[in-house]
Specification:
The protein is mainly alpha-helical. The protein folds into 3 domains: about 250 residues, no CATH class; about 60 residues, no CATH class; about 60 residues, Muramoyl-pentapeptide Carboxypeptidase, domain 1 (Orthogonal Bundle). The strands form 3 sheets. Strands 4-7-6-5 form a 4-stranded antiparallel β-sheet. It has a two-stranded antiparallel sheet with strand order 1-8. A hairpin with an 8-residue loop joins strand 6 and strand 7. Helix 7 crosses helix 9, helix 8 runs parallel beside helix 13 and helix 9 packs across helix 16. The protein binds calcium ion (CA). Calcium ion (CA) binds next to loops.
């Protein structure tokens, strides 16, 4: 998610279980082998930590000076409240086995980072967003063909380099090598992307003033647990949403899915590619990966049908889609093995780009990061690494979409009785489906896209009511 551009919903990892579950998992992991791995992890990182200490001491004074320079008296009250809030975490931290020294070091000098997306700030009625708040970028920009091509070439080379690890990972976890590599490529450009944030600060900020406080509070506590288990703070760099390591794990995912694949006794998502890849595969496996299946197929919508069939509520067997006239643009038939698999129609740019029949594994990829564009990116990158190429249907230029218009259309749909639950300014499957249904019902051109024209039609209709 690090290289992600925040243009679409980032309701990442919403299905993570409660803290009690993690405590049970941690106890469950106290097998002799896991215990040995933990001790080795702690020792390994402690040695590494020595070299960070000097640097940290010098850096600390500079950071203090910067903080005083940045924050005027206006922030003083918030910061006192933030400190009190941090202190109040202690009983839960203690219950997780975090020591007082680790806890104190973790929160020492910590300030909220108000520049992060998804925060609820005083005087604003919508959460902060990444980048330019008033726009979401268009799908073809996210699914940039030359970037995908570059990653695919690197991915092919890495598939050869890590062949024996990937052989073992496929066998153990049932996830094909191309999908595992594609996750790695999407998340951190195969480990080359430098994560910009301190995970503790990000998680504390999100837990304190974010849109999903409870969710991040659990992750913050587990990040402190990682410190307690010997992983140095300097390694805990994250995205704006607190995901760490080469395949972008949340702390809870570290404790539930991380694997010591190279058997060196250390679970290392930062520096061990085999560990990071096996952990990603394990996470996909745990989220329901269907062995031997791909993520989906590009499909063309026949003239007698339209994009308003989009989304999981319209799921049907591939065989039924074929009966409706849906085809692959390559002209090749769907493999016989998937004919009875359930699939749903997914058109990330409405009528202005390729459509897909998404199989179960598309949803599994969305459980890794809840975004249609993310899952489409990973799916296409996997196909490319396996020898495939670009989408066959071109993206038409539709330009960035104004959040104000998307929210307006969502509100209009809701007011007119369409099934819109959230007015969030993001164009997801359901928004596209409902726009298509509205256009169909009102005799408008069906493009399943929340345009200004749709908004104008809604305003006029509302005036007449
Ligand atoms: Ca390892």
């Amino acid at each position: 998610m690090a290289g992600d551009n925040g243009m679409i919903t980032h309701d990442r990892k919403l299905n993570v279980q409660g803290l009690g579950w993690h405590l049970r998992q941690l106890r469950h992991h106290r097998s002799p082998r896991m215990a040995a791995a933990r001790t080795a992890t702690a020792q390994y990182y402690r040695t590494m930590q020595q070299s960070f200490v000097g640097l940290a001491r010098h850096g600390f004074a500079a950071v203090l000076i910067m903080l005083f320079a940045m924050h005027g008296p206006a922030d003083a009250r918030t910061d006192a409240a933030f400190r009190a809030w941090l202190e109040a975490l202690w009983p839960d931290a203690q219950a997780l086995g975090i020591g007082r020294r680790t806890f104190d070091a973790a929160i020492s000098g910590l300030e909220p980072d108000r520049s992060l997306p998804d925060l609820i700030l005083p005087g604003r009625d919508t959460p902060t967003m990444k980048g330019q708040a008033e726009f979401t970028r268009e799908p073809r920009e996210y699914l940039n063909a030359s970037y995908l091509d570059k990653l695919a070439r690197q991915g092919k080379a890495l598939a050869a380099r890590y062949k024996s690890d990937l052989d073992a990972i496929e066998k153990t976890h049932g996830v094909d090598r191309y999908s595992v590599l594609a996750i790695w490529g999407r998340e951190t450009a195969f480990g080359t992307y430098k994560l910009p944030h301190d995970a503790i600060r990000v998680l504390a900020t999100q837990a304190y003033m974010g849109r999903r406080k409870d969710f991040f509070r659990k992750e913050l506590l587990l990040a402190m647990k990682m410190l307690e288990d010997g992983i140095p703070r300097a390694k805990l760099k994250s995205s704006w949403a607190g995901a760490i390591g080469q395949t972008q794990f949340l702390p809870s995912e570290f404790y539930s899915h991380a694997r010591d694949h190279d058997r060196d006794g250390i679970i290392n998502l930062f520096d061990s590619v085999p560990d990071a890849l096996a952990s990603a595969a394990r996470q996909l496996e745990a989220k329901g990966w269907v062995r031997g299946r791909t993520w989906g197929y590009e499909a063309t919508i026949p003239a007698a049908s339209d994009c308003s069939l989009e989304g999981p509520p319209g799921s049907r067997k591939i065989r039924e889609w074929v009966a409706l006239g849906y085809k692959r643009p390559s002209g090749r038939p769907f493999p016989e093995a998937v004919m009875d698999d359930a699939a749903y129609l997914m058109s990330p740019a409405g009528a202005y780009g390729p459509s897909f029949l998404a199989l179960e594994n598309f949803q599994v990829i969305r459980r890794y990061n809840t975004s249609d564009l993310y899952a489409t990116f990973v799916g296409n990158l996997a196909d490319r690494i396996a020898g495939g190429g670009d989408f066959l249907t071109p993206w038409q230029p539709i330009g960035p979409q104004r959040t104000r218009i998307i929210r307006g259309v969502q509100k209009g749909l809701q007011d007119a009785g369409y099934g819109i639950e959230k007015i969030d300014g993001f164009i997801g499957s359901n928004t596209r489906r409902q726009v298509g249904a509205y256009q169909k019902a009102n005799g408008l051109k069906i493009d399943c896209w929340p345009t200004e024209a749709v908004l104008r039609h809604m305003s006029k209709a509302a005036e007449r009511r």
